[in-house]
Amino acid sequence: MSELIHPDRKKKLDAIRSAGRDPFPARGVEAEAVERLQAGAGTVEEPGPLIGETVTVAGRITSLRDFGKLIFAPVQDRTGRIQVGLQKAKLADWWPQRKELDGGDLVGIRGELGRTQKGEVTVWAHEVHLLAKSLAPPPEKWHGLVDVEQRYRRRYVDLWASEGVRDVFIARSRILSHTRRFFEARGFLEVETPTLHPVAGGATARPFVTHHNTLDMELYLRIAPELYLKRLIVGGLERVFEISRNFRNEGISTRHNPEFTMLELYQAQGDYRHMMELTESLLESLALELHGTTKVEFSGTTYDLAAPFQRARYSDLFRRHNGCEVDDVEAVRKRAKELHVRIDPELGPWKLADLVFEASVEEHLEGPIFVTHHPIAISPLTKVDPEDARFGERFELYIAKMELANAFSELNDPIEQERRFVEQVADKDPETPGEVDIDYVQALEYGMPPTGGLGIGMDRLAMVLTNQPSIRDVLLFPTMRPQHGDQDPAGTPAEAATEGAGEA
Fold it and tell me: Is the pLDDT score of 307 beyond 60?
């Protein structure tokens, strides 16, 4: 028996069963939303149409206040909380069973909607149905789960016991729904692509590896849907998007979870500039949808998501904050030492420069700001900037020093794409593909039109739009060590293991 089960509650459970009653009935009750009942009650001065009507509510008892012949028991459902009044005079047959009730029990209540003498909306019960006996007591005094780790581990308690938590996840659902409507209104088709990939590609990240027994082959949980979505552009679908679960075998932090949600989209006849416009419009419309204004609060700072956003070139920002050019190899190495960036002797100069960028520039990117024209050497799927072949037609969006989006003018030259893939494989970097995706190259050989592509980390976007400091606060079930294993990585150095290769 679980250590969570309280002995007094177990005794009550046994007593209910001994009396021939089912503490976990198969049938619920046809209940009305608490939100609707509160609205229908009107005000004390102007009673609404539901006052005096017989109504039914179903939900969790949040507390019990026993005054002898009268018990007040607020009941909470998915839409809100309403007080229930249990009176001995109206519940004579049921009254002996009142001692079997505890805070946390799930009940169905049928009664008359009215008010107390103090004016509080109340359902005066004339029927009480136990729908599920709560054997584990709720958090002390119903103040919610205080221990942050337990909040994440027991989200099934956190959602109803901690103030505001449920609102965050309702808002997250609205973000995803609005995003779908936004792109469908612009002619984009939502599609689904494989989660198991024979070649890990589409991003720079260490994959999770699995094995298919029947085919006797290694497969990878997708790190990004990009290469499959672009195959669909070749196929003529022209405008596609996917909101997908992606998996990257990296560290855990306030901004990283190994499993996360990404929006990716591709538009034929588009480029990185079109992707900027889409990004600005989407974020602006999401802010208005959730808050009625383009200004959002995040970690004590106000960010205005009204278009247009600021733009700055990668090389200009690098020069401003490091005092040297991004392609000055010796100066970059010297700067890396000053910043205590680990210098791997096998690390190419452009990758080292990008680590220096992360260490020196990102902390200044409050945004919203588009950082444009990244080095082509670290952008293997990007078209070259026609004005400077060292850089690509690419941007990353930053808000609150955090990367939220990544976009390109997509490389559609199959010969150049294969050359870059071969170069990647030769690097033997564990975060790059271990083999060339020949099938993708062959798809390009049939011809892919000029295309713009965009990826947005929806978890990080939800953090900003709901003012949550950690990615775990916008994930219903964040990845954690088993309860009885070693210390959880939260709050340990493992949290910051990989701050690169953004989920956006």
Answer: yes
